[in-house]
Amino acid sequence: MSKDLLLEIGTEEIPAHYMPSILSQIKDLAHKKLDEANISYESIRSLGTPRRVALLIAGVAEKQSDVSAKNKGPSVKIAYDSEGKPTKAAMGFARGQKIAVEDLVVEDGYVYANVTTIGKDTASLLPDILKDIILSLSFPKSMIWGDQTVHFVRPLRWFVALFGTDVVPFEIAKVKSGRISRGHRFLGTGDFEIPSMKDYEAVTREHFLIVDPEERKQMILQGMQKLADEKGGTIIMDEDLLEEVVFLVEYPTALCGGFDTEFLQLPEAAIITPMKDHQRYFPMRDKDGKLMNLFLTVRNGDDYHLETVQHGNERVLRARLDDAKFFFEEDKKKKLIDRVDDLQRIVFQDGLGTLKDKAQRLEQITTFLNHKLDLGLDDGDLTRLSDLAKTDLLTQMVAEFTELQGVMGREYAMIDGEKQEIADAINEQYLPRFAGDELPQTTMGKVLGIADKFDTITGSFSLGLIPTGSQDPFALRRQTIGILNILMDAGWNLNCDEVFAFILNLLHVEEDKQAEVMSQLNEYFTLRLKNIFQDKGMDYHIIDCVLASDTLNASEAAKRADALIRADLMSQTELLQAYTRVGNMVKDADDTQVNPDLFETEEERALYGAVVAMQANLPQKYAVYDYAGAAEVLTEGIGAINAFLDNVLVMHKDEAVKQNRLNLLTLTFSLIQPIGDIKKLS
C-alpha cells in the first residue's frame, strides 16, 4: 500500500535567484533521505513560489522495506573452542546481532549472522525525515529572526505536511506542521486548508497561486507574446531575467507600458539596462530591428485596474530614463582622453596602485602581447587604448549604472572621434562577463581583455588574494576562464608563464617570491583549463596527457587534445606500449646526441635508422596537428623499438656505450613527446 506525501514550507519572500537551487536541492534531499530510509516511492516533484517551497512525492510506501544483511563475525578459530563449542567471542557477536548463537553460519573460515531488519511504518519516520530535509537546505545567505536559533533563508511562517490525508506532526522554530496554507498576499482570502497532495495544485490555484514554476513561465511568455503581437514588436528576450521574474510572482499577468520617444535618442544600452537590470522590464524591437518606446513587464496579480499599474511602472521608468539622459548629456561635455589624469584619484586595489597605474601596466602588457604573438598591431594604438580603457568608470552614467562599464566607454569613444577598433576594444575588454557570454571578436579587444585579466589575477596572487572553494570576491575564477577561452578561440599559442613573469616584474615583486607566485598561478590556471576540457566531455586520460607539461599554453593543449581525439590514439595499444617502454627507460633524460660509431649490435643500428627516417616525416605532421598521420609514422618504429629493448643490454659495462644507448632511447622517445605525456593514456 502507498500514500502520497506533501510538504509545503511557507516563508517570507525568498530572493528569486535562490529559488532554482532550492528546488533542486529539496528534490535531491528527498530522494536521498527516502532511499536511506529504505522507503520506496514513485516520483518526486519540487514546486515553488516566492513564499513557498513544496515537495510532492507520489506513491510513498506505508512501510519501510525489510532489509536482509549477512554480517561477518570472528574467524572460526576464535568463535569455537577445540570441542566445537561457541566461545565468548561467538556469543558476544550473536548477542550484538540479536540472534541465537546456534543460528550463526560458517563460511570461508568465518562465522556470519543472517539478519533481517523488519521495516517500520513510514508514518512514524516521516516527522524526522521531513525536518531533516528542511534543515539540510543550504543558501548563499541565511538569517535568524526573533528569539530563534534556526537559520533559514527567510523567516518560517507555516508548514503543510500530509501523508495521504493525515498530518505529519513536527515543529521547527516554534512553527508546527498542519494542513493550512496561505493564499496570494493581495488576491487571496487568507488561510485555506489543503486536503491532500492530489488536491494541492487545484486548491492553491483557487487562491491565486500558480505553484508550478514552469506553468508560470508559460503564462508569462504567452501573455507577453500576445501583447508584443498586438504592438507589432519582437521581445528582446533574456532567459536569466525571465527566470527571475518567474520567481518574483505567484500569479502572473503581463502588461505593456511606454515611454517618451525623446529617450530613444540615448544609446540603446542606456535605455535597456535601466529597463532590464533595475525594473525587470522586457524591451521590444520593431520589424526593422529598432528599439521601440514600449516595454513589457509582469504584475504579481490579475488584470484588475491594470492601467493603474501600467502608469505606475511608466512613471518609475521615466524617472530612470530622465537620470540616464542627464548623465549622458553631462558626460559628453568632457572627452575620455581628458579624464585620464583623473584615474590617479581612484585606487584599483590596495597594493596594486591606482587605475592610472593599471592603465600604465596595460600599455606595457598589451605591447608585450602584441610582439610576443606577432599580431602586427600599432603600438601607438595600444597606448591610446590603454589610456582610455578605464576612463568611462569616471563618468556619471557608469557610476549610476555599473553594468554599463565598457559599453558606455565605447559610446563615448565614438562620440569623441576615436578609432572604431579602439572604441570596440574598450567594450570588449570585459567579455566574457558571465558563463556562456560571447568572447571578444576584435584583435585589440582580445589583447586588452586578456591583458586586463592577466594583470588583475597576477596582481591579486602576488598579494596572497587567492580564491578558495567558496570565496572569490574579485571573480578571479571567471576571469581566468575568460583568458583561457579567449586564447583557445583565437588560436594564440601563448605561454602564460611568460606573461605572469612579465607582470610580476612590472609589479616589482621580489625575485625570491616570484617562483612561488608563478607556481600558484600555473596550478590555478591548469586546474581551470582541466575543468573546461572536462565540461567538453574529454576523456581524463587525454586531459592528463596534454596538460602534463611545463609550459602552460591553453591553445596548444586544446589543439593537441582535439588531435588526440580525432586520431583515436588511445586505441593504438601496441604503439603506446612500445613508446611507453622507451619512456620508462629514459625517465627525464634529455640528451639526444647519438654516436653511430659506438653501436655494437644490429638492433642499435636498426633503431637508429628507423628514428632518422621518422624524424624526417614527423615535423610536418605535428605542425598541422595531424596526429593520425604522426601515429602512422611512429608505428614504423615499433618493431625496431621492441627488438632493441628485448635484445640489447642498455646498462653496458662500458660507460660510453651505455650512455650512447640511453641517448638513442631518449632520441626515440622525443619523437612522440610533442603529443604529450603518453604514459597518461594507458
From TrEMBL:
Primary subcellular site in the record, as a coarse category: cytoplasm
EC number(s) stated in the UniProt entry for this protein: 6.1.1.14
Keyword Transit peptide: no
Cellular compartment(s): Cytoplasm
UniProt KW Nucleotide-binding keyword: yes
Signal peptide: none
The entry's keywords: Aminoacyl-tRNA synthetase, ATP-binding, Cytoplasm, Ligase, Nucleotide-binding, Protein biosynthesis
Record GO terms (molecular function): glycine-tRNA ligase activity
Domain of life: Bacteria
Domain DALR anticodon binding: 576-671
Catalytic reaction(s) noted: tRNA(Gly) + glycine + ATP = glycyl-tRNA(Gly) + AMP + diphosphate
Cited SUPFAM superfamilies: HD-domain/PDEase-like (SSF109604)
UniProt xrefs under NCBIfam families: glyS
UniProt family annotation: Belongs to the class-II aminoacyl-tRNA synthetase family.
Assembly and oligomerization: Tetramer of two alpha and two beta subunits.
Protein name: Glycine--tRNA ligase beta subunit
Top-level taxonomy: Bacteria, Bacillati, Bacillota, Negativicutes, Veillonellales
Gene this chain is encoded by: glyS
